[in-house]
Amino acid sequence: xxxxxxxxxxxxxxxxxxxxxxxxxxxxxxxxxxxxxxxxxxxxxxxxxxxxxxxxxxxxxxxxxxxxxxxxxxxxxxxxxxxxxxxxxxxxxxxxxxxxxxxxxxxxxxxxxxxxxxxxxxxxxxxxxxxxxxxxxxxxxxxxxxxxxxxxxxxxxxxxxxxxxxxxxxxxxxxxxxxxxxxxxxxxxxxxxxxxxxxxxxxxxxxxxxxxxxxxxxxxxxxxxxx
Length: 227
Hints:
- The protein is mainly α.
- The protein contains seven helices and three strands, in the order H-H-E-E-E-H-H-H-H-H.
């Protein structure tokens, strides 16, 4: 019971922030998905227009599957939008499409944090899967060195979450600026985009906090075991 209480002490703030962030995203997205833009452009048209305006004709825009499955693939140079965003003519669709276009622009401009995040993907996949297992195994077997190896591997997940923050914030800032300067949205519509993208950004903050709090909890258990 004491161990569970200590875990909650580390994890509860991040978990609560994560739940709040998810609620904010769903609330903002649902609200502004019902608000059509004055120009009536679909998310796919917004993405294509902004890409072309920045000289990124080589980047393709495709429809993906699933709700909020929107992402930019830097290897294939493809911007993939979920059906609701790809076909939607709402403020939410425009904002999300522009955000993903922001990642394509980062890629084209050689934005350092995006390149770093992409390079970290293989190590993060290994660390997020093996790190906790190695840590628990080392802890149960009383093999401190092995447990610390698990902490180190999982640390890649926390580092990835931290690197993700400037990448996502920068993409949103680029999106907000382009939607205004390129005349895609009128002034009052920009407020809705801000709320949608700011809510989405909060989920990345929560993810980073969750990863860091878990890492600190692992380290606390190891240091405590030495007493």
